[in-house]
Amino acid sequence: xxxxxxxxxxxxxxxxxxxxxxxxxxxxxxxxxxxxxxxxxxxxxxxxxxxxxxxxxxxxxxxxxxxxxxxxxxxxxxxxxxxxxxxxxxxxxxxxxxxxxxxxxxxxxxxxxxxxxxxxxxxxxxxxxxxxxxxxxxxxxxxx
Amino acid sequence: xxxxxxxxxxxxxxxxxxxxxxxxxxxxxxxxxxxxxxxxxxxxxxxxxxxxxxxxxxxxxxxxxxxxxxxxxxxxxxxxxxxxxxxxxxxxxxxxxxxxxxxxxxxxxxxxxxxxxxxxxxxxxxxxxxxxxxxxxxxxxxxxxxxxxxxxxxxxxxxxxxxxxxxxxxxxxxxxxxxxxxxxxxxxxxxxxxxxxxxxxxxxxxxxxxxxxxxxxxxxxxxxxxxxxxxxxxxxxxxxxxxxxxxxxxxxxxxxxxxxxxxxxxxxxxxxxxxxxxxxxxxxxxxxxxxxxxxxxxxxxxxxxxxxxxxxxxxxxxxxxxxxxxxxxxxxxxxxxxxxxxxxxxxxxxxxxxxxxxxxxxxxxxxxxxxxxxxxxxxxxxxxxxxxxxxxxxxxxxxxxxxxxxxxxxxxxxxxxxxxxxxxxxxxxxxxxxxxxxxxxxxxxxxxxxxxxxxxxxxxxxxxxxxxxxxxxxxxxxxxxxxxxxxxxxxxxxxxxxxxxxxxxxxxxxxxxxxxxxxxxxxxxxxxxxxxxxxxxxxxxxxxxxxxxxxxxxxxxxxxxxxxxxxxxxxxxxxxxxxxxxxxxxxxxxxxxxxxxxxxxxxxxxxxxxxxxxxxxxxxxxxxxxxxxxxxxxxxxxxxxxxxxxxxxxxxxxxxxxxxxxxxxxxxxxxxxxxxxxxxxxxxxxxxxxxxxxxxxxxxxxxxxxxxxxxxxxxxxxxxxxxxxxxxxxxxxxxxxxxxxxxxxxxxxxxxxxxxxxxxxxxxxxxxxxxxxxxxxxxxxxxxxxxxxxxxxxxxxxxxxxxxxxxxxxxxxxxxxxxxxxxxxxxxxxxxxxxxxxxxxxxxxxxxxxxxxxxxxxxxxxxxxxxxxxxxxxxxxxxxxxxxxxxxxxxxxxxxxxxxxxxxxxxxxxxxxxxxxxxxxxxxxxxxxxxxxxxxxxxxxxxxxxxxxxxxxxxxxxxxxxxxxxxxxxxxxxxxxxxxxxxxxxxxxxxxxxxxxxxxxxxxxxxxxxxxxxxxxxxxxxxxxxxxxxxxxxxxxxxxxxxxxxxxxxxxxxxxxxxxxxxxxxxxxxxxxxxxxxxxxxxxxxxxxxxxxxxxxxxxxx
Lengths: 144, 1102
Hints:
heterodimer, A: mainly alpha, 78% helix, B: alpha+beta, 8-stranded mixed sheet, 34% helix, membrane (chain B), endoplasmic reticulum (chain B), transport (chain B), Cornichon homolog (chain A), membrane (chain A)
C-alpha cells in the first residue's frame, strides 16, 4: 500500500466531484425556481452563467489528471461528458460574457425542461462517478 | 384587493352596506336584520340532499331586501346567473329524480337566452365581424347557425339540441333568483317593473358615478345590452309573495311550496354545481342546501305554479324571441347527452357539420370565400358564446380544446392563442372600484365564466377555488340594484378594464416620457428624413398622448452624442456635445427631459431648426450604441419611450456592427445565414431598458444593409416596435416618404400604455409553452412590457399538462396591467372560454385555419433563427402534411382518392404555400436580408388580421365595381368585390385589379383596361398615359372613382398603419413584387399551388 500519484488523483477527483455535485444541485434548484416564478430570469442567468465555465474546467482538470496517470478506464466514461461540454459551449447563444444561459430564451418551456433534465442527468452522473472514484482510490491504494 | 370585501361576507347586516351600496341609499336602505339571514339557508348542511324542490324561500328575500328598487330593476332585466350555470354543462343531467313535477313546458329558460339582438351589436365596432353581435333571437336552434360562420355553428346545430339542456338548467335557475330578491317588494310593485321589460333607461343615468365609470372611451352599453334581458322574470315573481315574506329562513321552506316553485334558487345552484369540473355531485349539494333538484333540468320548470302561469304568458308575449323560446327548450330537455358538443357531433354523424365537410382539394379549385374569412365560433352554449371574447382580440388555434396532450399530438395541429390585447376598441366597459374581485389562490379576475354557487360565493373557472363575493360586489352600479353580483359589468363582459387602486402600483404611475434619438450623420441628412420627423412632431406635438406631466427630450448622434438643453428660461435650445462615447454620461441630467407643456415653444424651436442644423455635416460614422446608452441613462429614472431613427449600420463605439450580407448569396444560398444577432449588446441593453420600464422603438430608414437582426433586438426585448423603410429617400422615393409620414402620425398619436405587464392565465391543466411577440418573459406566464401599443399582437403556444377529462370548458384570461398616458393605473382583462372535446373529429371541426397559420408562422420564425430556414420551411410543410394525414387516417371513415381536408382546413395548404413564398421564408428569390428579417419581425408581432394579409394578400377586381352587395357605413357606400384567387389566370388584360397586401396595396392595370376605368378613375386618357410612379388616385367626381376610392379608403381604415397604393402597369418596376404575390402560380424556384397539393397528397397517402 502506497500513496501514489494515481491515488492522489482519485482523491482530488473525489473532492472535485463533490463540488460538481453541488453545482448540479444548484442548477436544478435554480431552474426549478425559474419554473415556479420565484426568480427573475435575468438575475437567475446572471448567477448561473459565471458557474458554467468553472464547472467545465473542473471537469476538464481531473480528466487531464487521469490522462496523466493513464487511468483509461476512469477516463472512458468521462470523455462523452467532456465532449458534450465542448459541444454545449460551442453552440451557446450569442453572448458577450461567459456562460450558457440567455435570459430571453430561458423561459421557453423546451429550453427550461432541457436545462432541468441536463441538471438531473449530470447529478446522477457525478454521484455515480463519486462512488466510482472512491472505489478507484481505495483500489489504487490497496493494490499498489 | 381590499380585504373589506372578504371580511364583510359573513357580515353582520349593517356594515356591509356601507361599502358598496351606500351610494344608493334609497335602494339599499332596508333592513339590516334581513341581511344576515341571507345566505344561510344554502349552507345548511342538513338540508343537503333533500330532493325537495326549493321553495321560494330559499334565497329568502329577507336578506336582500335592500331590494333593488323596482324601478331600477327593470332596467337591467338581465337574467341573473344566466351564464354561470352553463359552465358545467353536460353533467347537469341530474338524475331524474322522482320528485320532478313532470314535464310541463314552462318556459323558464326562454328568458335567458334572448339577447336583445340590437344591444349585442353595440358592443364592438364592426358588427359584421362580431359574431356574437347579431345573434338572432335566441329562438330555435337554427338560429345558432345564423352567425355567419358556418363551421362550428353548424356543427352544433346539427344536433337537434345544441347545448340547451344545460342552459335550461341555468335558466331555470335564473328567474328564481331574481324573483326572490324582488319578493320583498310586494307583488304589485314588482309587476309593474316587469311590465316594462323592454325599456332600458340609458345606463348613464343609472350609474352611480363613483363606483362605476361609464368608461373613458365609451360608456358602457346600457345594462340591458350586456345581458340578455329576460323580461319574463316576472314569472317567478308571480309566485305568491306573501308566503315568502314570513319565511325569513327561507330554506326551510315548506315542502308544499316547493312544488309550485321549482325554479327557486336551488336550481340555480344545481346548474352551478354541475358546472364545475366535475364536482362530485355530493358536495355541491351541500351548499345548496335542499336544492338538489330532482328533475332533469328541462323539466324543472315545467310545473308552473298555477297562478304564476297566467302572469307569465302575458309578459312574455310582447317580446318575440321569448315566445319562441319555449319550444326550443323543450327540445333540448329531451336529451341531456346532446349537450356535450362531441356527443352531439357523434350522434349526428350522418349530417356532417359544415366544418368537417370533406373537401377534395385537388378537385375543388375555388376555395376562397368571397369575402373576409371569419373565425370559427367555439361550440359553446349560446349564452356563453355571446359574451365570449371577441376573436379579433383573443382567439385560439383550436376552438375546441383537446382533452389530453396525446389527443392533441394525434391531431398534429398546434395549440395556441393569438392576442391583440391593447387593440383600440370602440366600446370598452371601464370599472372603477376599490376592490377588484379576484380569485384568492390563482388571482384570476372575476369574469363571465365563473360560476356563482350562491349570491355570496363564486367559483373560479381557472383553479376551481370557491371564493367569497365581497360586499361591495353585491351592489350593481349599472342597475343600481343590490344582491346581483352576477349582473355586475365584470361578469357581463369578457373584455373589461379596471381602474386599479394603489395596490397595483409599485411606484407612483409614471408620466408619459418621450425621447427621440435621431441619426444626423451625413447619410441620414442625405435621406432627408429629419424634415419629415420634425414636421410630423410639430404637427402632432399637442396630440401626443399624455397629461400635464408629459416630458419630452431629444438626442442626436453621429460620431458624437448631442444632447439638447430645453430648459425654460433659455433663449434658445442649447446643444451639448459629448464626444466621449466610450463612457457616456449625461451633461445636465435635469434639463434634458423637459415638461412638454412648459417648454412647448422651446421644443418647437428645436424642431424647426433641427433639419438645417446638420445640413453640411460630413460625419459619416454612427455611434448608435452609445446614443442608446445615453437614452437609457436619461430615461431610467422614469421609464418611457425611446424612438430611435437610424439610417445606417452603426459603426462606432459599443454595439458597432459589420456588414454580414453577401448580396451574391441572396438568391442562391441554400440556407440563409445571419438571421440571428451578431452581438448581444442590443439584447442586453434592451433587458436593462425593460427593467427600467423603457421601451425602444426603432425606425430604420436605409438603403443599405443595417443588420436588422442585431438592431431589432433592442425593440424586441423591450416591447418596442420596428419600422423599416428600405431605400428611403426624400426625393427618390416619395411613396416611402408618404408611408413614413402616415406611420409616424399614427405612431405619435396612438394610445400608449407604460410600465405594463401582461399575465396569461389558463385553466388548471393547461400551461404556456412559448410566447411570441416583442416583450421580455419575466416568468412562466408573465410578460414584461415597458410600453404597450394598440398595434402589438402576441401569440402563445400552449401545452396540455394534465388531462382535462372532467372539464366541459376551459378558460384563458389575459390581464394587461398598464399605466395610461394620463397616469392612471389600469387593468384590461380579456377572458376566452372554449369547450373541451375528446374526439379528433371535434378538434378538426374547431380548427381555426387563420390562427393556426399565424401561430405556425411565429413558430417558423423561431425555428429559422435557432435552426435554419430550410428546417423551418420543412416544418411548415410537414405541419400541413401531418394534420391532413391525421385527418385522413383518424377521422375520415370513407377513404376516397384525392387530397381530402375538412372544410375548415381547406385553406391550410394554400396558406402554408403562401408562407413558403412569403418574404420571410422564401428561397430562390433574391431577398435582402433586412427585408427578410423585417418580415419575420412582422410575422411575430403583428396582430393576426394583418399577418394574414401579409401572408395571403386579397385580390379584387375593381374595374367593374358595383354597388351590389355594398356595405353602407355612415352614409358611404362601400362596394364589396369578390376576393379572387392569387393566380395570374385570374388577371385579365381588360381589367384592373387591386391587391391588398396589408402594408401595401397594388392597383394593377391591364394593358387593355377598360378605357372607362382609365378616364373615370385614374383620370388618364389611355393606358400609356398611366404615370410610372402613381401612388394616389385623383379625386374625380365620377361614380367609378368614388366607388374605388371608397373601397380603398375602407380597406385602409381597417388597419392602424397606412398602406401605400401603387399603381402598377406592365412596365412598372413594382410589377415583380406584385407578381410575387401570385402565390398560386409556379415560379422558377417554387411550386405552384396544384403542384404543392400533389406533393402533399403524395406524402399524405404514403
